[in-house]
Design brief:
CATH topology: Rossmann fold
Radius of gyration: 18 Å
Shape: globular
Strand order of the largest sheet: 3-2-1-4-5
Number of strands: 5
Order of helices and strands: HEHEHEHEHEH
Length: 167
């Protein structure tokens, strides 16, 4: 019995195609709600560079959101800061670990949603806007098997993001 040889490249291309098709299928299901509930919002992301920066790009490029600012809370080397500033030429990048400064910045921007941690809950409540937890701490939330990585993670994020405005 002769088998069909499938090379690594073909196998990976097939997996990528399946993932893309799954993502586009669910995105198309979200489209009517996106327009009906006016889900394009002004957002601020707060968290470590390895979480906040990629999510900001995804939300802007893949979901059409308006990213007003990305507040990086971890201490990164100067060359990494310069890379981020260059990569996000049209988005304000703030580097701060100071909770009061972060709250003041968010208060000045007055976004429609915050993606951050439990530390930003009080400013979200003050501004009466939704908050989605994308980084630690997430006190009061139990997370056993949830990721923001890959197709399933991006769909989970879009689901939570959209649900924040359909209540």
């Amino acid at each position: 019995m002769a088998g069909v040889y499938v090379g690594k490249k073909e196998l990976l291309d097939g997996i990528r195609r399946q993932a893309r098709d799954k993502y586009l299928y669910f995105l198309s299901k979200l489209a009517s709600g996106y327009y009906r509930h006016h889900i394009q919002k002004e957002a601020v992301l707060v968290g470590p560079s390895y979480i906040a920066a990629p999510l900001a790009k995804f939300l802007e490029n893949g979901f059409g959101q308006i990213i007003r600012s990305v507040i990086i809370t971890n201490n990164i080397p100067r060359h990494e800061k310069e890379k981020l500033l260059k990569k996000f030429e049209n988005i304000e990048i703030v580097f701060s670990e100071d909770g009061r400064r972060i709250e003041d910045k968010i208060r000045a921007i007055r976004p429609e949603i915050i993606l951050g941690s439990q530390l930003e809950t009080s400013i979200a409540e003050e501004l009466d806007i939704p908050i989605l937890y994308i980084s630690l701490p997430t006190e009061g939330r139990i997370i056993l098997n949830k990721s923001l990585l890959g197709v399933s993670g991006s769909l989970a994020l879009l689901e939570a993001y959209s649900n924040a405005f359909t209540k």
